[in-house]
Every structure is written in C-alpha cells, then in structure tokens.
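ok so for the tutorial part 2 we go from a plain amino acid sequence to predicted structure tokens. step 1 is just haveing the sequence, like this:
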Amino acid sequence: MPNTIALAKNYTKLLDEVYVGASVTADLTSDSKLMRAGANANEILYPQISVDGLGDYDRNSGYTDASVSVVWKTAEFNYDRGAKISVDTMDNEESFNIAFGMAGGTLMREKVAPEADAFVFATLAGTENISVAPPAAYADAAEFLAALITAKSKMDEDSVPEEDRYLYATPTLLNGVMALDTTKSREVLNSFAKVTKVPQSRFYTAIDMLDGKSAGEEAGHYKKAETGKDINFMIVHKPAVIKFDKHTASDVIPPENNPNSDSYISKYRKYGIVSVYKNKTAGIYLSHKA
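step 2 — the prediction. this is what the tokens look like for a chain of 290 residues:
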C-alpha cells in the first residue's frame, strides 16, 4: 500500500503540472491572502479600499482629516466542475502502464485547461463597466497595432497602472504584429508584463458549460454560446481580477480500492471563482468581432 500511495502522489503532482503548463490564464491567479471566508460556505470576502483626497493645509490647525474606508465585498464562487475517468487494469498493463497516465494528462491538457481559460475570458468579458472597443475584424497587423495603441491610451487615461498589464490575443493577430518587426510594434508589445497567444477555441465573450448529463451534453466540456462573439484581444490588469480556487481535488484510486470494477480511477474537481473588483473594471479592456 505505501507504494500505491507514493505513486498516487506523484501522479497527482504530474496532473497539476500539466494543468498549469497548458493553461494560459494561470498568471492571473490571485493572492489567497487577500481573500477571507464569507458568512456562507459558497462566498468569499475581498477588500475594497477608498480614501479621501487632499485638503488645504492650515498653518495653525495643520492637516485636514482624510478618512479611510475598508469595505469587505461579498462574491459567490461561480465555478464548480469535475470529472471521473476509469481505466481497466488490463488496458493499463497491456499499454505498459501508460494508459492511465496518458488519460489523466489528456484530460488536464485538452479539457480542464481550455475550459478554465474559456471560463475566465468569458467571465471577464461579461463583466459590466469594463472598457470595450467597437466590434472589429482587423484587416491586417497594422490595424491590430493601432487598436492596441488605442487600448493602451484608454487604460492610461483611466489611470490603470502600466505594471501588471497582461495582453491576450489570438495567434493570428500576434503573429502578424511580430512579423512587422518594427520599432513601434516592439515597443507596444514590450510595454506589457506578458504577451500570451490564446487559441480562438477558448477565446469567446460567452460560453455554455455542458453538464455531462443532459441529452446532447453527455461529453461535457463547453462550447461557444449563441450570443458569444470571437474575442480579438483582451488586456487584463492583474490586480483588477479575482481568480481563486478554494478547492481542487485530484485523487487517484487503485483497483484494489475500487469496489465497482477492476480499474484505476482518477477524480478531478475544481471549485473556485473568477470575478472583477467592482472599483477596478477599467483594468479590463476587450476587443471582439462583430
């Protein structure tokens, strides 16, 4: 049994590494120290801080008083998804003990990571009061570059700090700008903390989460919603985002502990939240197609 436990721990670690490596939004994960438990189990509290401005200084009475307000806002967890995969002992043995590992890795890389990314982008895109560019399909790299400059200017005017701005864009658009190889294009791309290519298949303004049970949804996963639009690019100021996983379960059950079949079982569940600080919506800039 100790060997089984050790193998399970190693396998779970591998799955976690696969997820982080395959996800394009892992960089946006929030500092858990800023979160606290809410009154209900499905809620968290996050701080929203505001202060008064400067007043006239008086040489007799000195400084004017400025108040500080720390309000704990409530947000509900909005992501609770999971899956269980099973691989027969003989199938695993006859594949030289790689079928189970490959199945788990494929689940993380092809299902878990893309869905998590798609959920992040769709949630941010659906947030009220973020900055949204007029719908457009950029004809060439020059138009895309001009749109990026417009977006940067908008965020600058809204006093969004330049630090921690992350640019996400489709590979087609980014590859086009990189091909320009001009001083302007390099300066624009280098102004972001990180530039990440996002496949269009996980870059929509709205998605439908398939429940894995209903007719037509047995395979689970997600799809582009009827109201969803293709995203061109998104600029995200990381401090504006709440992205926090309260619970991630990645368990491995060996055949000897499986009461239903002679199979290895892997269970994966993620319970978390993706949201935007209500006073930092200017930290999200979205461009999508018509």
